[in-house]
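DM between two lab members

TW: hey, do you still have the WecB/TagA/CpsF family glycosyltransferase entry open?
JB: yeah, one sec
JB: this one, 257 aa:
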Amino acid sequence: MNIPDKLPTYDVLGVPVTITTPVHAAQTIEEWSKDDIGRFVCIRDVPSLMTINNDPAIRDLHLEAAMITPDSSYIAKIGRLRGLPVQQTCGPDLIDLVAKRSVQRGLSHYFYGGQEGIAEQLAEVFKARYPGFQVAGTECPPFRALTKEEDDAVVERIKASGADIVWVGISSPKQDVWMRDHYKHLPQTLIGVGAAFDFQTGNVKRAPKWMRKVMLEWLFRLASDPRRLWKRYLILAPRFVWKVTTTPATEQVARSR
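TW: and the structure you got?
JB:
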């Protein structure tokens, strides 16, 4: 499949979201693994889109991303309402799909993120789930900022690992900034999947399929951790709906350029 490096997008509040599906995103990542060009992929849900887009210091990182997938069913629906072939492409599903497909394709993976031990646990989950799954390395960085020496060492470890894909799970927007600051120094595709590390290892329970199907996964997550997530779903999400319905499409596109 011949996939162009510059992927078509549609605009959501100035963010160029890629017109994609889980399978197309996986195929694209596989194509990118054939070269040594560093790229990064943002997986954008509503709260992270609002957080990053409201911060001028990091807003333009979207313009450097090689792909921005619609993590949220609502962001995907905006594309479908415009007649585009878009499907929700969220972190937990994408990492599992790529992991499954990568066994036959011989791709290796590096897991960077999570609390102590989570990256190693995730690697074991996929090795058990998909025999032949290749792990190039795992690392759980400290929550504090790294020194320059520590950061340089991280880059060298990832380079030396020979990984084809680097999965980054240090939450958004921290992971997005990390990918933007490092992709030019690495030959791999970096993919920021946030809580997917916790979902795939079972450390955080995911909403049942029926809730995901009717676009209520956000409600399940809010009920599971209201103290941490109330602002994300009760303030940022309503603001998103208001801005999408009141901002003219022409103005949104102008701000994305």
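TW: got it. The first helix runs from residue 22 to 32. Residues 210-256 form one domain.
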